[in-house]
Write a structure and sequence with these properties.
Shape: rod-shaped
Number of helices: 3
Largest sheet: 3 strands, antiparallel
Order of helices and strands: EHEEHH
Radius of gyration: 43 Å
Distance between the termini: 50 Å
Number of strands: 3
Strand order of the largest sheet: 1-2-3
Length: 171
């Protein structure tokens, strides 16, 4: 430490009352601590202020990022539910149409049974009805499968897009 006067400095111990005042012992004399430049004090005040403000700034940024992430997640879930709801609606409409077709086929079969006069005619009519119902059931299953696949694909698109955005933010 450069001082205007020469000598051997020894710092007083912390428990000594003079040590608190910032004095040094020089050959059993007390000497004042050399003054600290004003620029250094200002720099220390700015550093202390920055150090004190850093956690608050970090917390504010973290809250903003969390809010933006929550909004993004909410939008993704909202889009998912909209697409899933549309898919469910389409499936319900198709189920109702299939039930109507099956009910009409059953009533037609019952009407035709009323006109049957012999057992051979009954078996022919039953076999024909069973064949029609089997074909109709196969067609309904194909249509329902296609609708379920379409609904699942469309519902998953917002989730996939949201996951890709999240991965892009991370990378």
């Amino acid at each position: 430490m450069g001082v205007a006067f020469g000598g051997d400095f020894t710092r007083l111990r912390c428990c000594h009352p003079i040590a608190v005042s910032g004095r040094y012992v020089l050959k059993s004399k007390l000497a004042d601590v050399p003054p600290v430049p004003a620029r250094r004090i200002a720099m220390n005040e700015n550093a202390a202020r920055n150090l004190a403000e850093a956690p608050a700034t970090y917390a504010k940024d973290a809250v903003e990022r969390s809010a933006m992430a929550a909004d993004g997640a909410f939008n993704v879930v909202e889009q998912f539910h909209a697409k899933a709801g549309k898919g469910a609606k389409d499936l319900n409409i198709h189920f109702i149409a299939a039930a109507r077709a099956n009910t009409n086929a059953a009533f037609d079969f019952a009407q035709q049974l009323m006109a049957v006069t012999s057992s051979s005619e009954f078996f022919e009519l039953s076999a024909a009805h069973a064949g029609k119902q089997f074909e109709m059931l196969n067609e309904q299953i194909k249509q329902i499968s296609a609708l379920v696949q379409k609904a699942a694909t469309e519902s998953a698109q917002p989730l996939q897009a949201g996951a890709m955005k999240a991965l892009d933010r991370i990378a």
